Sequence to fold (148 residues):
Amino acid sequence: MIQIVETELPISEVTRAASAELGDGAGAVVTFVGTVRNLSLGHRIQYLEYSAYEPMAKAEMQRIVGEVHRRWALPCAMAHRLGRLQVGEASIVVAVASAHRKEAFEACHWAVDEVKSRVPIWKKEVAVDGFWWVEDPLGGAPGTADDA
Fold:
């Protein structure tokens, strides 16, 4: 299961999708939920804005799920949210099921890192004193709040 949504993330649905393949054989389901925090780079965050090139993002997420299956022989499901997110809201969920916890933790950790490094989803952090794109190759120099 791969989803990109602009509404609240279906965390339970993603977790169920990962564990469904193993059924009663799933002794562990590791679910990572990334949430918007209130501080970044020493600035108080007001909200985040996520945008994506959706066709490529979905394709890359599907490749990551496939790689989890090939490397660990484990089912994986994930969803990412786009749009404006407030502090405390979930932006990403990745779930991996396994007979044992160690493999599920390893595969989930790897999958989250791969999503962050490979999937064309961009994050704009808007703070009380400016904003910046997290992936900014120039170092994320804050703009003014009026530019947001």
Q: What stands out?
A: The beta strands are 2-5, 28-35, 39-40, 43-52, 76-81, 83-86, 90-98, 121-127, 130-133. The CA atoms of residues 68 and 74 lie 6 Å apart.
